[in-house]
User: What shape does this take?
Amino acid sequence: MKLKLFVLLQSVKIIWADRGYSGRELFDWVFTQLNCYLEIVKRQKGHQGFHVLPHRWVVERTFAWLSRSRRLSQDDEREPRSSESQVDLASSRLLLRQICHNQIAY
Assistant: This one.
């Protein structure tokens, strides 16, 4: 069974993941089930402390935008479908704000 995202978007060919997701079994599963590659985003050598990792900022920024929605600030939903609907609503609101050049008050 393919995930909904990969049914709708065949252009997704690479999934970026944290070091915690490294492992041969996961690489193989992603390739066979989703027909794309799993790329682990690693720290750059020689850097100490905090620094922005490539591609990770996109995910972190998206989570920050979604967490501004009051219903998503806590996970109080009983059904996973309800949580998914709230993420869809928050994403739609963000998309509408971008289309309307941020004219809609949050």
Observations:
- The chain has a mean pLDDT of 77.
